[in-house]
Design a protein that fits this description.
A alpha/beta (272); B mainly alpha (268); C mainly alpha (259); A: 272 residues; alpha/beta; 4-stranded antiparallel beta sheet; 35% helix; B: 268 residues; mainly alpha; MetI-like fold; 10 helices; binds adenosine-5'-triphosphate; binds magnesium ion
Chain lengths: 272, 268, 259
Amino acid sequence: MEKPLDELVRLQGVGMVYQSSRDGERVEALAGIDFSVRRGEFLTVVGPSGCGKSTLLSLIAGFAAPTSGSVLFEGRPVDGPDPARGVMFQEYALFPWRTVAGNVEFGPFARGVDAATRRARAQTLIDLVGLKGFERRYPHELSGGMRQRCALARMLANEPTLWLMDEPLAAVDLQTRIILQDELLRLWGDARAGAQRPTVMFVTHGIDEAVLLADRILVLGRRPGRIKEVLEVDLPRPRAALRGSAEVARLTAHLWELIRDEAAQAIAEETQ
Amino acid sequence: MTGGMTRPLSRRARVLLPLSVLLVVLASWEAAVQATRTQGLVPHPGGVLWSGAQLTANGVIFQAMSGSLARVLIGFLFGACVGIPLGLAVGAFGTLDRALRPVLDALRSIAPIAWIPMAILWLGVRGNAALFVVAYGAVFPFIVNSSQAVRQVDRRLLSAARALGAGRWVMLRSVLLPSALPMIFTGARIALAFAWASIIAAELAVGIKVAGHGRSVAGIGQLMVETLYVKRDVDALVFYMLVVGLVSFAIDAGLRRVQERLLPWKSH
Amino acid sequence: MSRAGARFGAVALPLSGVAAVVVVWEVASRLAANATLVPPPLTVWRAFAAMQGSDLPADIGASLLHLAIGYGLGVGAGLALALVAASSRALEAIVDPFVEFLRPISPIAWIPLAILLFGVGRAVPVFLIFYASMFPIFVATLDGIRRVDARLIHAARSLGASRRLVVTRVVLPAALPSVIAGARLSLGVAWMSLVAGEIVGGDAGIGWRILWYQEFFQMDRVMAAILIVGVLGLGADLLLRALQHLARRWNPAAAESAA
Ligand SMILES: Nc1ncnc2c1ncn2[C@@H]1O[C@H](COP(=O)(O)OP(=O)(O)OP(=O)(O)O)[C@@H](O)[C@H]1O
Ligand SMILES: [Mg+2]
C-alpha cells in the first residue's frame, strides 16, 4: 500500500453520533470509517442523501469532533479549523456584508497579512477565477456561478494544502457547472504532475462529475454512513477532453450500479 | 457562540440552574431586608407572599381585576371593529394608504395615555375615560397588521386561483382570508397586550386624579394608586405588579394556543 | 403621467389626508359648540404658537433628556445582557427565565412602585424608559445572534479567524439588522413609557405638561401638547427607520420584508 508520507488525512475508526438537545434523539451519521486521503489526489465522495458526506467533511475541517475514532491531518490530530484546510460550502456561505474583494481578502486579513499584500493577492485570485470588474459587488448582486467563483477565490487566498468542497457546484445550472468544472481542474493543476497539486476532497451528487474529476471515488453507504467502495479512476489527464467519452460513460454506469438501490431506498424513507 | 462551539445544556441543568439562582437571589434579598429592618419601606419576598395571601383571601383582587378586564375586552372589541376594516382598506388601496399613512403614523405615536385629560373631559372619570384610552391603544395594532396582511397576500396564489376558475367569492373565502387571517390574529394578540398595558396606565392616571375622594375601587390601576397613596403598602404593590404580569402572560399564552388551534397553517 | 403622478402621490396625497383630519376636527368642534370640549384646530394652532415662547422648549428638552438617559441605559443593558447570554449556554439558562418572567410585567405596572421608591420626579420616567427599552433589544439581539448562519462562522474559522474576530466581523454584522430592529421596538415602548411616567409620576417634560395645562383647564394647550407627543414620537421612529435602511444595504431579503 501507499507510504505513510503519501497520506495527508487519516481517518481511524471514525464514528459520529448526533444527539438532539431537545428530545435527545440520536442519529448515527458515520460509523467505522477507516480511510486515508493521499497527498495531491483529487478524491470525490458520493453517496445517497443523508449518508454523512457533509459530516465527514466537517470532521476533517475541524468544525466538529468525532464521537469515536480519530482524524489526523499531516500526522497530527485535528482540533479545530485551520487555514491549511480550506472549505467551500454548498450554499456559498459568502459574507453578505462584504464585497467580492472583501470576501476574498478575509482569509489573509484574519491571519494578519498586511493590507497591500492581501489586496494584491485578492486581485490576482479574482482575475484568476474570472471575476475581474466585479470586485466592488456584494454577493447578492452576483449570479450563482459568480458567487461560487468568489467562494473558490476566497478559499484559495489562504493557499490551503487541502481543499474541502461540499457540493460546490450543486446550486448552479448545467452549463455553468461544466465551465466551472473545467476551471476548477485548471486551477487545481490538471495538466501538472501529481506531487505539486493541492489535495481535493470533493462531495457531489453528480455521478458523472464524480467520475470526470476524480483520481479516486469514495462511495459511502447509509444508516449509518460506512465506506461501501473505493474506485480508482485510471483515466489520463487533462480530463476536460474526456467529457462524454466512452470510458467516462462506462465508469459512470458502474458507479450508478453501486449506489442505485440505496438512493432509491433513501427516497422511499424520506417520503414515508 | 453559535455553530457547535458550545455544547447544549441538559434538560435538568436548564431547569435547575435558573431555579437555584432565583432561590439564592430571593433568600439573600429577604435576609438583607430583615437585617436592615426596612420592612414596609422596601418590598421583600416574605411580605409579598403574605400580602398576596390576604388580598386573595378577601377577594379584593378579583373584584378589581374583573372591572379592568371587562374594560379591556370592550376596548379591544372596539379596536377590532374600527381597526380591521380600516386596515384592510388601507392595505388594499394604495391611494388611501398614502393619504392616511402620515396621519395614522402620527396618531399611533401619541401614547394612548396622553389622551387622558381629553378622555376625562369627554367621558368622565367613572371608567369610561379609561375605556377610551384602551380602545385607542388597541386600534393601531389592528390597523398595522390588517393592512400588512392584505399586502403580503401572494399574488401568485390569486393568479393560480383565478386560473383554476375561482370566482370572487371563492377567491375571498379560500385565498384572501386564509392568507390574511394569521397576521390579523397576530395583530389581535399585540392589541390585547397593548390594551392591558393601557388600562393600567389609564386607571393609574384617573386614580391619581381622584385619589382620596373616590371610594369605589373600579380597577386594578385605581387599587394600586390607593395602595400607594392611602395604604402605602409596598408588598401589596409588588403583588399587584406580579398579578398584572401574570395576566399578560396568560392572555398571550392563551391567544397563542387559540391561534395554533384555529389557524394551524401558519403561526406567526 | 408617471413622474407627475408620482410627485402628486408623494406630496398631495399625504397632505389631503392631513387636510381631511383637520376638516373632520373642525366639524366636530362646531358640532360640540364648545371651544373647551373640542378646541378647534385654529385655536390649538394659536396655543401652540403661544407655547413656543414659554415653556415648550424646556419641556421638550426635559423629555428628550429623560429619553436619552433611560433609553441609552436600557439599550446598553439589553445589548450587554444579550451578549452575555449568547456567550454561554449556562449564562443564557440563567438570564433567559428572568427576562421571560419580567417581560410580561409592563413598565406601566412599575409606576406606583417607582413613585414609592424614588418619589414623584424625574427618576420615575427615566426608570420606566430604562426598564421598557431593555427587553425588546435583548430579545431581538439574542435572537439575531442565535440565527447567525453557522456556515458563516465555520467559513471564518477555517479561513483563520480568531474567536474575537468571529464575534466582531461575523456575528455582530450578521446580527446587526436584528439589533437595529430591536432598538426601534425599544424606542416605541420607551416613548409610551416616557409619556405615562411623566403624566403619572413625573414633574417635568411634555407629558407632565399635559396634566399641568389640564389643571388650568387650558384644553387648547392640552391638545397642542398631545399632538407634539405624536410628532416627536414619529420623528424618533423615522430616525431609526432610516438607520435600519442603511444597515440593510447588503441584505436584500431583509430589506424586502421591511417594506
Ligand atoms: N447538526 C446535526 N444534528 C443532528 N443530526 C444531524 C446534524 N447534521 C447532520 N445530521 C444527520 O446526520 C446524517 C448525515 O448528515 P449529512 O449532512 O452529513 O449527510 P449528507 O450525506 O451530507 O447529506 P446530503 O447529501 O443531503 O447533503 C443525516 O441523517 C442528518 O440528518
Ligand atoms: Mg451534505
